[in-house]
């Protein structure tokens, strides 16, 4: 009887994890884009009145890892602004319904493009199906389900930030490798040039002069 109960609990837990993986809980946009030098890209999201939203960005590669960010409401009023920022986040509640505009500018840079990660979430995450839908005390299974769901979200966020840091470190390593390669090429060219000059000078010292040149000097 104990084995049968443990098997049922394990099956229910597996089915619940399957539901977690197959459902979308909150309207969110998460992407990485290439921001060209001297350019400005804007993204738009429709948000209803009294709806909470969350904007997060991070420059993962390019130049000094900085970008200008501006967030405007449907009236065109600036509700959030950052200049030459590497990463930041902003949470707000929409005061009016309409299309909100998030712009990322790289106009201050004339030769380096940037790779920018953006996470734009709109709305609160709804309760899990069958959980928080009743006023009674949560069962142990429901409490465990909430804990697992929260842990999964934390894992996803941690994986995203680790990927960003890994991409940033890889980009820096590639840039450092390129600089070392060009510096090594310059050193090699300098050594070869100095060697050729020394050979020519020494060859000139030991070159036999013609007899008429000797007598003319005497």
Structure in words:
The chain is α+β, with helices and mostly antiparallel strands and 218 residues long. The chain has 2 domains: 97 residues, Jelly Rolls (Sandwich), CATH 2.60.120; 62 residues. The protein is 43% helix and 30% strand. The chain contains 3 helices and 8 strands; from the N terminus they run H-E-E-E-E-E-E-E-E-H-H. The chain has a 4-stranded antiparallel sheet with strand order 1-8-3-6. Strands 2-7-4-5 form a 4-stranded antiparallel sheet, with no helix packed on it. 11% of the residues are buried. The N terminus is likely disordered. Belongs to the EMP24/GP25L family. One of its GO terms (cellular component) is endomembrane system. This is Putative membrane trafficking protein emp24/gp25l/p24 family.
Could you outline the blueprint of secondary structure elements for this entry?
Layout: H1 2-22, E1 27-35, E2 40-47, E3 52-61, E4 67-72, E5 78-85, E6 87-93, E7 98-105, E8 114-122, H2 140-205, H3 211-217
Antiparallel strand pairs: 1-8, 2-7, 3-6, 3-8, 4-5, 4-7
């Amino acid at each position: 009887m104990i084995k049968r109960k443990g098997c049922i609990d394990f099956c229910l837990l597996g089915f619940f994890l399957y539901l977690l993986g197959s459902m979308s809980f909150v309207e969110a946009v998460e992407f990485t884009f290439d921001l060209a030098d001297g350019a400005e890209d804007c993204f738009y999201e429709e948000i209803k009145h009294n709806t909470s939203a969350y904007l997060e960005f991070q420059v993962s590669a390019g130049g000094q890892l900085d970008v200008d960010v501006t967030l405007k409401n449907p009236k065109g009023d600036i509700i959030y602004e950052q200049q030459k920022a590497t990463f930041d986040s902003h949470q707000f509640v929409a005061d009016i319904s309409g299309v909100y505009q998030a712009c990322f500018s790289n106009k201050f840079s004339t030769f380096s493009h940037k790779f920018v990660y953006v996470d734009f979430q709109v709305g609160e995450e709804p309760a899990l199906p069958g959980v928080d839908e009743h006023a009674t005390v949560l069962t142990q299974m429901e409490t465990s389900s909430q804990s697992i769901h929260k842990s999964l979200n934390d894992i996803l966020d941690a994986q995203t930030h680790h990927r960003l840091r890994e991409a940033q470190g890889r980009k820096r390593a590639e840039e450092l490798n390129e600089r070392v390669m060009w510096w090594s090429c310059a050193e090699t060219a300098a050594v070869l040039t100095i060697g050729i000059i020394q050979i020519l000078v020494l060859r000139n010292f030991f070159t036999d002069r013609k007899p008429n040149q000797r007598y003319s000097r005497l």
